[in-house]
Design a protein that fits this description.
single chain; 105 residues; mainly alpha; 5 helices
């Protein structure tokens, strides 16, 4: 997983793919490659940030809370903050909304 994460960051860097707000990419960019690649990288970075236990607890909470319904990026952020007991605004701003490559924990 770590190698795939590093490969994704290398690809995103080499192809200047950090300029899109993937938390709300808009209709024209909804299926853009960087939405998926940055999203996957952000999930792995979140795992590094809060740890396996909190990520898996948050994933379970997410599924039980929003099963068969819709939710927003902000809802996901709130669930992960609740599960981890951490304030993650800066993390999500950097990984989802930022236009430069975030640092890695």
């Amino acid at each position: 997983m770590q190698q795939q994460f590093e490969d994704a960051l290398t690809y995103l860097d080499a192809n200047d793919r950090w300029a899109l707000d993937i938390s709300d990419p808009g209709r024209d960019n909804l299926f853009a490659g960087q939405v998926y690649l940055r999203g996957a990288a952000a999930l792995h970075a979140l795992r590094l940030e809060i740890g396996d236990k909190s990520l898996f607890a948050g994933s379970q909470l997410w599924l039980t809370t929003y099963n068969e319904s819709t939710a927003t990026t902000e809802d996901f952020e709130a669930v992960m903050e609740q599960a981890s007991g951490q304030q993650l605004d800066t993390f999500f701003d950097e990984w989802l909304r930022g236009d430069v490559r975030p640092g890695v924990s």
